[in-house]
Design brief:
The protein is elongated and about 135 Å long. It is built from two helices and no strands. The chain is about 70% helix and about 0% strand. By secondary structure, the protein is mainly alpha-helical.
Length: about 120
């Protein structure tokens, strides 16, 4: 909606300028109200849909948090069991090392076999 231009009227245009400005003010307010009334259903529809989405999202978030907590606690328990198994295996390995003779742990070559000699190369001068 727009206000008519009264200032372009011949002979009386300059006297009608205050009336024209007040008409423009009134039409501006009417246009604002009309735009608001057109936007209100869209905004209410948006808020309704976002509220329903929030109602659906909150239980899903709670379910995800509970499942992740259970998974984390199960993994923590598995890790503790594995740490216990590693400690047990380390103690068994230490006991086996003590039971073995010292020579077999060094893995020395047998005395009977000769070791191959490395050939020396001469440097050219």
């Amino acid at each position: 909606m727009s206000a008519p231009e009264l200032s372009n009227v011949p002979f009386a245009g300059e006297y009608l300028e205050p009336l024209e400005s007040s008409l423009e003010s009134i039409t501006g307010r009417v246009n604002s109200f009309w735009e608001f009334s057109q936007a209100l259903p869209v905004a209410l529809d948006f808020f309704t849909r976002s509220g329903w989405a929030l109602l659906v999202a909150i239980p899903l978030i709670v379910i995800v948090l509970v499942r992740s907590y259970r998974t984390a606690s199960r993994r923590r328990k598995d890790l503790q069991e594995l740490n216990g198994t590693v400690a047990q295996l380390q103690s068994e390995l230490a006991a086996i090392k003590l039971a073995l003779p010292a020579e077999s742990c060094l893995a020395l070559p047998p005395v009977n076999q000769e070791q191959p000699r490395q050939q020396r190369t001469r440097r050219k001068q």
